[in-house]
């Protein structure tokens, strides 16, 4: 009996000391929630007496070091804005370079077609020798003869030709060729703009995806720190015999999942950086950081419609293609009409390479000719070419109407998505605040023994999901706004 009475005071004294040394619920909650509102935290200190706690702290601190490594890599490189990224991508993208080259060559084709309307001048030089046939014939000089050539098509045994020749061809085909080259240049210019906007869409998408991936790392890091701190709290309460060991296990499982999510987020961020780096730098691994542009408000619907109708390259390309097909019909019909060829030559065509002959006759002179070839019969070839041109023109009309319908649909789709994403931002932000307050209250209730570990884990998951949804909603609005700007040609 004496031993029993002696043991009871010792046991009571131990409980009193445990209650005095243990942190109060308010202090425990202050330690727990010190990292909930902040996006970047350090790992919570763990008790040296608990190997499980040390492991959780080591894993959490490892996640913090990984985040610091990622952020340090970003800060070590140059800061890249959207405009700088677009400029670098345009210099490195081969498809866009090919589109630019096609546009420039099409402009030169127009200059070439214009030159075909002007007279061409050549300086023609030729020497002809024909075997003589043994006879002699008279020359232009009175009383003189020269050996006769064996071929009747040639004028003399020795013939020297040195003339400047100007030639001009006048016909409907030449004028329609110039107009056709102008339409082709317009098509190439529109296609280059389509390629530019496609590249812009790709770069902007990768740019914002890289930003979103970095923001997800911050969210997952906060969730990991929160889970690590909750592991510490459950272990402290287990040591005080306030909760069962099952609470510690549940908290540790949550921490392990958060650490895996953090690793996945870091991997996705690395992939996003490499994907964007391929378009920007000779070495995709070059360190850089992205700088988001200032947020802009959603433009009015009427302004977007006006700009989209005036600056849409697909519509311009379809209109220019239809114009080119109409000109192809005119070119095919031009085969029914004759071409007038004017020729003017000035120089010598004589037996001597000299301005004057040996007898004083002047060899230097000029000649002019006009040729008009009238088409008569070509076995319906011209008629069939006209039919081909009509068929292609009808197909171009279908493509134009399809482009117009697509533009209308894209305008409604992009504006509707941008408007909805903009309206949801306030709701998503409110959800984050609500989830953060819910976690705060749930942790307080858990510290007071009024909530279960499942309620805390559910509140943690709700806050993480709300933060990720807010980041996704922000990126969604920025991408939708960028799509509108691409549609209107303002980016």
UniProtKB/TrEMBL annotation:
Keywords: Cell outer membrane, Membrane, Signal, Transmembrane, Transmembrane beta strand, Transport
Location(s) in or outside the cell: Cell outer membrane
GO MF annotation terms: efflux transmembrane transporter activity; porin activity
Coiled coil: none
Signal peptide positions on this chain: 1-28
InterPro entries with a match to the protein in the record: OMP_efflux, TolC-like
A cellular component term, taken from the record's GO annotations: cell outer membrane
Main location: membrane
PANTHER family per UniProt: OUTER MEMBRANE PROTEIN TOLC (PTHR30026:SF20)
Family per similarity comment: Belongs to the outer membrane factor (OMF) (TC 1.B.17) family.
Protein name as catalogued: Outer membrane protein TolC
């Amino acid at each position: 009996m004496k031993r029993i009475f002696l043991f009871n005071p010792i046991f009571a004294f131990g409980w009193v000391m445990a209650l005095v040394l243990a942190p109060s619920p308010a202090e425990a909650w202050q330690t727990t929630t010190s990292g909930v509102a902040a996006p970047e935290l350090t790992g919570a200190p763990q008790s040296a007496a608990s190997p499980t706690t040390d492991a959780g702290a080591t894993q959490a601190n490892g996640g913090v070091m990984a985040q610091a490594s990622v952020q340090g890599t970003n800060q070590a490189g140059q800061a890249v804005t959207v405009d700088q990224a677009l400029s670098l991508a345009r210099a490195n993208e081969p498809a866009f370079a090919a589109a630019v080259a096609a546009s420039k060559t099409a402009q030169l084709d127009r200059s070439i077609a214009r030159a075909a309307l002007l007279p061409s001048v050549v300086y023609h030089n030729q020497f002809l020798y024909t075997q003589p046939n043994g006879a002699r014939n008279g020359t232009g000089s009175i009383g003189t003869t020269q050996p006769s050539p064996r071929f009747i098509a040639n004028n003399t045994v020795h013939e020297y030709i040195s003339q400047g020749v100007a030639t001009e061809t006048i016909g409907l085909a030449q004028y329609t060729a110039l107009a056709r080259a102008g339409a082709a240049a317009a098509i190439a210019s529109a296609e280059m703009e389509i390629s530019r906007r496609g590249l812009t869409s790709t770069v902007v998408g990768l740019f914002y995806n890289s930003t979103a991936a970095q923001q997800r790392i911050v969210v997952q890091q906060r969730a990991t720190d929160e889970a690590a701190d909750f592991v510490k709290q459950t272990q402290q309460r287990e040591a005080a015999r306030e909760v069962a060991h099952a609470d510690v296990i549940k908290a540790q499982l949550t921490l392990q999942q958060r650490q895996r999510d953090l690793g996945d987020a870091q991997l996705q961020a690395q992939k996003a950086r490499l994907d964007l780096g391929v378009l920007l730098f000779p070495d995709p691994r070059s360190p850089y950081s992205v700088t988001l542009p200032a947020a802009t408000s959603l433009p009015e619907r009427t302004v977007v419609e006006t700009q989209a109708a005036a600056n849409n390259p697909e519509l311009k390309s379809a209109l220019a293609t239809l114009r080119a097909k109409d000109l192809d019909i005119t070119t095919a019909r031009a085969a029914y009409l004759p071409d007038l060829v004017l020729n003017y030559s000035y120089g010598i065509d004589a037996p001597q390479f000299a301005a004057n002959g040996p007898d004083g006759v002047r060899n230097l002179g000029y000649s002019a000719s006009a040729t008009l070839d009238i088409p008569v019969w070509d076995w319906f070839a011209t008629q069939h070419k006209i039919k081909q041109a009509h068929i292609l023109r009808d197909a171009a009309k279908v493509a134009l109407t399809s482009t117009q319908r697509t533009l209308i649909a894209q305008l409604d789709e992009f504006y509707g998505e941008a408007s909805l994403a903009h309206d949801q931002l306030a709701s998503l932000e409110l959800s984050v605040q609500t989830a953060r307050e819910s976690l705060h209250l749930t942790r307080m209730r858990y510290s007071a023994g009024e909530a279960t570990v499942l309620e805390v884990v559910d509140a943690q998951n709700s806050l993480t999901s709300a933060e990720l949804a807010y980041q996704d909603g922000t990126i969604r609005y920025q991408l939708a706004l960028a799509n509108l700007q691409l549609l209107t040609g303002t980016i």
